[in-house]
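**User:** Hello, beginner here. Are you able to go through the protein record under this note? It all follows right here:
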Amino acid sequence: MGENFVFQEEIRLIHKDISEYQIENEIGIEGKTEQELAASLNFVTENIEGSCQTITDPLVFDKVRSFLKHFHALSPRIASRLHDILLSAFRAQVKATSDDLDSNETDNFNDHRIRLEHYIFLIYWFLEQSEEVAKAANAASNSKSKKNKGRVYDHRPANWTVQKKKTNDVLAWLLDLKLAKLWTLSPDRVVLINLFTKPCYQFFENPANLKSTELKVSTFKILSVCIKRYDHLPAAQAAVIQNLQYWEHCAEPMAEWLHYLIDKFDHGQLADELLREIGNQEFKDTAVKDVKDTANPKTFSLFLLKMTELAPRVILKNLGVLCQLLESESYAMRLTLIDIIGKLIVELTENAEESQSQKDQVNGFFDILEERMLDPISFCRVKVLQTYIRLLDLRVKFPKRRQTLCALAIRHLQDKSSSVRKFVVRVLTKLLSTHPYDMYGGELGLEEWQNRLNTLNAELENSRTEEDIVGMGSGMIMNQQPTESSTNTATTAPAAESHPDDEIEDVDMDGNDGENKNPEAKTETDDMDIDDESNTANAHSLPPTAEDDDDDVPVAKITTSVPPRPIRIISAEKMQQLTLMKTFLADAIKFIEQIHKSIPIVGHLLSSKSKLEVVESMDFFMTAYLYKVDLAKDTSDEGKGIKMKLLDCYRALYIEADENLSKRQNINNVAKNLIELTYHTTLADLTSLEQVLSTFMADGDISNHVVDKLWDVYGFSRGQISKQQRRGAIIVLGMLAKADTEVATEKIDLMLRIGLGAVGKSDLVIAKYTCVALQRLAGTKSDKARGVYEGKRFPMAHPIFTKLKNMIESNSTSIEWFGTAEQALNAIYLLGDHPDLLCERIIKTKTQQLFADNDNQGDEIMNDKEDEQVNDNDDTSMDIDQSDQASQQTGGTSTQDRSSTPHPLNKSPFELSQLVFIVGHVALKQTVHLEVLESIWKRKKAPTENSKPKPAEAMDDELDQVGGTAEDDIGDAIIRIREREILFSPKSLLARFGPMLTEICARNKVYTDRTLQTMATLSLSKFMCVSSDFCERHLQLLLTILEKSKDPTIRSNIVIALGDMAVCFNTLIDDNITFLYNRLADNDKLVKKNAVMVLTHLILNGMVKVKGQISEMAKCLEDSDQRIADLAKLFFTELANKDNAIYNNLPDIISNLTAQTADRVEEESFHRIMKFIFSFEFVEKGKHAENVVDKLCQRFQNAEEGRGWRDIAFCLSLLPYKTEKSYRKLLEGLPYYQDKLNEESVHKYFLEIIAKGRTATKLQKVDLKSLIDELEAKVESFSGITKEDKNKTAKPKKKGNCFTCYTKRPWKLPRPIYLTNLISNTIRG
């Protein structure tokens, strides 16, 4: 057989149709039992085990070939036994060959070669058959349905992994021998090596094989030996590229093999060649693949990343070639290179010795990353940011690169991609949390760092080295006293400034506004000090500073008031330290200023539609707050998922305890934090904060100890305490009582003694918020409850009402009285069982006080008022909405003006203002109280009716139809009381004040006091909300005041009142809605903003119909006040969700905006407005778009020449034109606009319409293309513009870049509003 066996020919034959493979002594395998097959194997075993040389015996060799030819018919047990027999004999033959090669028995070389070729052929065939069976089994397993899935029969041995490893070990042993002595010709060795390597490469094709690490390593060894000793490198390179091309799972195993080759065999040439080839390949995105056989970017990316992880030095050596992939069409390859560069920076930084070449390499890599931030694909920009986030955690801080990164981040906060913006904010957060400026505790207060730099500059100016003073006179030198202490002072000066004494804290729980003038009170108030223990605890962590009484005085101020300090002589080394310190401080200040620059832009992202952006922005603000960055204490948000994130931020910042502090210190800190949250807030801020704190209270996050501490601050009376602290305490307590009524119930006496006692009368803001806290006693309506909430009621003899009455009747001329009186009246109506009786006494008392026969009373009150107004202008007054307007309305009219104005009643206008305010608010609250009574009566009436015996059904039905139910009777009675009795009954007290309010409002030239006019108008508006009859009688007067009043506060109040009247009496206001739309053009921003908000509420809730005046709202889209523009955008966004609302009013909007009026919008503004309106989905509906095209074409007939034509053509160009009918409408309307096409802009807009159609024709029918061609031909024929003219004027269209506006419709408040406004938007809906 040895003579007839030709190795290469046999290999070629088994690769053909195996059924045609001829075996001379072939035995039958198929159909035989396992016992019969075992008998045949026994014959082979007896011969081979006796001598491995018998493999050349034709009978033995042909029997083994017969088994392999019918391998699919073998059971796993027979296949395993066959493999063991062959492997045992093969191992013996290899050992015999090795012995003869070592002893150089050349006579036996040819025999060994022949026998080895037989064994290698059989082993190769067995391995190939095994892999084919495994592939077939996997394919069958994948094709089986889940329902009919059965057991797939794998003919390989059960312990195949172990046996395959043994086979690989024997093959590797054979390859370690000097095979060149056996196969002397190179072609023969190539054929032999290919037989060794082909099963190895096939091994990688099956993902299941790669699960065995031992099997992988044995395969790696065979391939590595072939490359190292038998020049297999070119074939291996081609095989690796082919595997990477077609098998995605091969990426990481190929990289592992190359690392094994480098690590175990010190052979890196294959890796270098592969990386060079990959670097020179052309990759295309899989989405636009033109050829199926092009390189797969995903697999090559995984390969390169694994190589970077295992052998970064090899990647670094070939990075010059790989960097060409940064210009690849495939963004996946660019992503990979960005990731690789980041990993190489980590490698060079952590595992390499510092050298100039290494620094140059790292700087070059950073340059590449910075350049990639301009990549047009957002995924690449995101990958750069992710890489930076990983690099910022390194031990090396790269301070210069951090400055550049911060500037890049600020630039990309306005990136058009939401994901990029999200990671930019995350980068800014990471920059803050890992900043290198931690010498002074890590806080980043700009003022403190600036003070340190100023101090250091002063030290440098007064310090010289010995070399610097060589040229100075000896007398000057003698005056210098260089001492060690002066040197130490120079070095410790920055440290002394690291924690300067803070300004007087807003929450000073010692009870001192400034100096403590009462030492005894100081000792008594130690218990009330919230800051004392925390400051003491922090003092131990401060660096040592000079003990000086003037440490907190800035150095710059000292130098201006004292003579210049003498020049100090310091060493050159110390001067260098000071210079380096100056650079350090300057870099820190630059970094802090960059963070300050980013804060307003990140504030914009808090109103983004992307939840992830908002969450990242909140993390940024929380981190900035923790590092004491200025302007970062307030943030904002909306949404359910985001609400939870907001609460987590607040909890971490203000509520959670510090483990390093004692329990008492933590309680003090939490109370202090909560009180500080109320400083410098608006009404919207407090509304949002109330929701946050009430949620915390309901969840049990605020302990009773903190509540007790707040009550201690509020009720503190043993010394002095600032107004802000007491105000903040009662504000927070009122918010907490919203969730837990017991918070207020237990401290009623304290509130009556402090808030409604002497303290409250001296500070009406405290009194106002005390009234708010008292209102919590009534309880809160649950979310599930329906109808009007009655609340807990107290008898009118309760001391609460006496105190409230006294507070309302108190003689005060402060503007804060009105807010206090409003909340006091609210408390009376919420808590009293008969509030109308008490309010009646209050009105009578105030009336008697005002109209008493005391001629000098008015003058005395005016003098008192003048004195109190001087004292009321303090900086601690609370900020509320329209505070500027309120201050104007009191300060605008001086005392002299009021005294000179003729008053028919000859009484104080301020007292009259108080009276009319009380009357108006009581009228409104009485209406609400009637609704509560109606609900109570109906509920009491229901069980009574149910208990009555039921009459006959027929009679019951008739009675119900004629007389109605008891609930109807109650409702009718309440309506009658509201409409006819409250304001018209002769017995009604309020009815007497209606004519007086009308008199004051109508005769504004007689009653000229601004406060009086404001309150009279406000009360008249409240009266009009009570009765439709009263409203109808006085509506024209109110509208006249709205049109003619010069006071923006009055106009603003009337706008809001008209919104309330529209809810109550829809028909009356709907007929006069034009007056409300006119306020959209008001000169005052506050009036305009309120008009936008009121109309938004009325229209979106269906209170008034959408009419042509909506164009006035469209003009607000271009308002100079960003807040008004944002509200208008929000209005149209919500309106677009209503069925065809914008589509139905689009003609009126265009007509009014293009009309030739004095207030006509500019052409550019018109374009921006229409772009926004046409961006909604209503134009996506084909039928709507066709109708709009038809109507716009008809408008060309009556349009103004020039501007009118351009406006209509521009609107036409904004439509999508997705159907044939749209272009057919354009062709049908050609007679309307054919004579306008000679206008250059009109012609340009029609060419844009045609271009849209050209783009759409790729996916449309041929008919559309013919229509577009016809339209284009007619447009060109009527335009009179030649192709040469068109080419001259044509400009390339600029592509959008990554800095396009960060959201398509930034209407959701894209301005820096902050965290405390978060939930108010959700509450208001």
